[in-house]
């Protein structure tokens, strides 16, 4: 009987200090993507179906933070199926989110189904740039659209794709709206570096 109480206490402590459901969901998403057919075109759009549950809502519509969380899971699936995760691991690289921006166009309400459409739009020497769209299955409206800068550490997007595709991959052009966002990130970074005196220290 005492061992059962210890197990329950340990589980309670674990769920109190760690977002257990997040990591369980990540494992489930990666496992499911692993058994799905691979996607050979790294820039191809991939679709993950979803539905707004009571756990996702505030005021009967999807909570703003939930959109970003669902985008996390969709990227795990994307990178697993197109082989980017595998290539990055082979090169000893890691990928982290460097920036995101999201535009909400219409609320997704409780019980409403949606498709989360993710794709790699382009890349530069340091990061992949992705677009992720929440499309309502009710009427096909794009309810939210997010851009994500996925920074590559200890390697580069070009090296990852060369390892994956066994050839040099041509970089797609930056769409105008994405380029405006990238310019904003660069300007913000320069302003913050100047504010903290990093530019002067590096001279």
Automatic annotation (TrEMBL):
InterPro entries: HotDog_dom_sf (IPR029069), THEM6_lcsJ_thioesterase (IPR051490). It comes from the Eukaryota. Pfam families: 4HBT_2 (PF13279). Belongs to the THEM6 family. This is Protein THEM6.
